[in-house]
Amino acid sequence: MMQFLEKLLEFIFLPSCGVCGKIGEGYLCEKCEKEIEKYRLNHTLNYSKNNIILRDNSNTKNNISDKNKASNMNDTNINQSVSSIDLIKKMHILEYKDIVRKLIIQYKFNDKSYLYKTFVKIILSDKKAFDFIKSYDIIIPVPIHKRRYKTRGYNQSELISKELAHMCQVKCYTDVLSKMVNNQVQSTLNKNERLENVKDVYKLIKPEKINNKNVLIFDDIYTTGSTVMSCAKELEKAHVEKIGILTLAKD
Fold it and tell me: What is the separation of C-alpha 205 from the centre of its chain, rounded to a whole number of angstroms?
């Protein structure tokens, strides 16, 4: 029913580009799509148990910044282990800078929840990202605390995850992982503080829903990886088959 209403509204009110506002070319116009492509990474990394990079499968149309290269190579001690998961694949779609950074900030903090449609269009416009998502059974968005949800009105990662699940015909569960602590915002902390800030924050609620499944964690921004790796450690308690991580942008 909800999907029908959405289609009806799109028919009555033509969707506009989330970047420039142009009407009639969907949620991302051709001109803005070309601009966004300059920041595309589709950067796939394979991590071992202790989060050390084993192989870099970058697919960039422009060179990754030195900052990102350094971040990738130093991204080794985020978590000590994910006990029985031998390999965690991560895909980062865009570089978090310039117009990408501006859009994500507007989406999260300026009450522009409708931008999730634009971000989904960006993610799925590359077949590699589509195939990566399809290799998993379930998408689980990184949860936010109920107080933050009440203030913001939505979970930015959940909106994107649900649409990705619908488009890729996989499941999206929002009741498996819960954020129990309304901790400090990660962006205000340094790397070591971020690690401490996410300890014992997330709790596995319904392990039976993901037991022996391939699970993909989705988050909007990846900086040190402390948030998504904390979620991965908790989800691993359900004896999942495989865990992957997809992020919209890498800082």
Answer: 20
